[in-house]
């Protein structure tokens, strides 16, 4: 059976998880997850606290290794030695809930974290990283070039600015798939608007995204498809055309109370 | 109305890049301490400190532990500590002596010693990074392990390292080059290489990230285990270099080699402004701090002050410098660049 082309005429998913479970000691965070993201698609991930959203994201990113039996496919190809470095190398970038910044370091080090630019000699190209960082900050993060300098340490920045670094970092590398884990958490109204615009732009650029947020009013308008997670399981998958926001909210309440969608 | 308020408060968040002082504050601080101490020595004993001999003296002895401080800076920046390097010095040098006595040519024997140093570092690093054992605890354990192995191998006896027997080693590690103590030339060479390694390579960049926030580093694809292991291996190799250099300087390999090196070396790293919490630190700081500590020793004795004052002076300089560094650092941070 060829795994390279599943679903016949349908496009091959950018990323696909088959029967993925993840156990931490005695806690089963994910069980038997099947999950797909197609090219140019924005997938929303909804679920209560502890539903497994962040664990799923970190599994997609290679930070967690799935329990045996689970499989990860990138563009239809099964990948066994999945790791963060591998995932990023293939063009998957994440804006983590916890931002994943190193706050004592200057902005440029954070911007190029794990994928530092080098000269032909293999040494770090610090000047180019500073210059690129400066450009990105003024072009994408809306900082006037004088406001924040690439050499400033991250500790000195506001929550929105830190999030700006995390988002710009995911964007810059021309990712195929961008994962945003609660990107609007702790942001001001304008910063939230900017972030949501950014998600819509991903789609316009023909890239895919996974969007996770507690706030269904943020998620619903920008996504094409929705996964509802509950207690580590996929409780439901919806095309946005199939369900209105009100129906969705009702179902989420139902899931939260009973643990099932029916 | 609202536009009025907006206009009334123009964007005042324009800020300059962090000043030179802010970026290099702790490095300048330690250089300042060094100069101040030197001046006080010159005033206290002008006859001694205007004579070149005193500088030659501590330029020969300081690198013996200073070189290790340079490498140890990497481990401390990753947020760990290595207390086993004095034992690695001895075990590595013992390896060299045993191989050389067995008739192995000296370059190969020296390489073998470095391999042993790297292996010791690998063991430390693996236990710390892969098994997540606190380095403070496990490197005390491996310190006894390496020392014990060395004592058993050597049967507790030393080995003479005369210039007749090892002319090449003496030329490399003992003979001054145009009057400049070769030990200090080694220290400068190692400092340059390690500065590049820390500030201009991916490994160095990852050392900072791992020490700052290991979870963030892992989330962004940095291999924390490998970075920490390599930092420990670096200390192992450099400790062996220092061990051989120290033994050649004394014409003799003592099985107790490394005793008395521990605190000087660690003090150099912290005095140099490298944070015990990880994530920040500099090679320049450790370099200057090592010479300050070396100079206190040589200075007190040759200034004719009773040698019992050495430790007191050590303590004062180290405690005062670290306190000052902390205060200055806080000051600088409070005037935070974006005004928050």
Describe this structure in words.
The complex is a heterodimer of chains A (262) and B (340). By secondary structure, chain A is of the alpha/beta class. Chain A has a single domain (15-104, 153-258), classed as Rossmann fold (3-Layer(aba) Sandwich), CATH 3.40.50. In chain A, 32% of the residues lie in helices and 23% in strands. A six-stranded mixed β-sheet of chain A has the order 6-7-8-3-9-10, with helices on both faces. Chain A is globular and about 55 Å long. The two termini of chain A are 34 Å apart. The relative contact order of chain A is 0.17. In chain B, 47% of the residues are buried. Chain B starts with a helix and ends in a 6-residue tail after the last helix. Chain B has a two-stranded antiparallel sheet. Chain B has one domain: ABC transporter involved in vitamin B12 uptake, BtuC. Chain B is an all-alpha fold and 340 residues long. Chain B has helices spanning 2-8, 20-44, 46-49, 52-77, 85-101, 106-130, 135-154, 167-173, 182-200, 202-212, 214-219, 224-249, 262-271, 283-302, 309-334; strands at 159-160, 252-253. Chain B contains 15 helices and two strands. Chain A binds chain B through residues 58, 61-63, 83-85, 87-88, 94, 96, 98-105, 109, 113-116, 118, 122-124, 126, 144, 146-153, 155-158, 161, and chain B through 11, 13-18, 23, 196, 199-202, 204-206, 208-209, 212-213, 215-223, 279-280, 333, 336-338, 340.
